[in-house]
Amino acid sequence: xxxxxxxxxxxxxxxxxxxxxxxxxxxxxxxxxxxxxxxxxxxxxxxxxxxxxxxxxxxxxxxxxxxxxxxxxxxxx
Length: 77
Fold this sequence. Notes:
Layout: E1 3-10, E2 15-17, E3 20-32, E4 37-50, E5 53-58, H1 66-76
């Protein structure tokens, strides 16, 4: 393996479910090889907007709340 890249991303095109907008948060890992690459995505959380309210649902014990998520994302930049 030549290069490994980790990144946490908020998917910018939400999934619409009724009146809710759901934004998945995923951790992507890319391994670059001589002949191509491998890509892995792991779900971390859901950010949900319902009318004027926002909700955070964690799916990973390492990211228990929105403040931890923002802190980790800030460190990556």
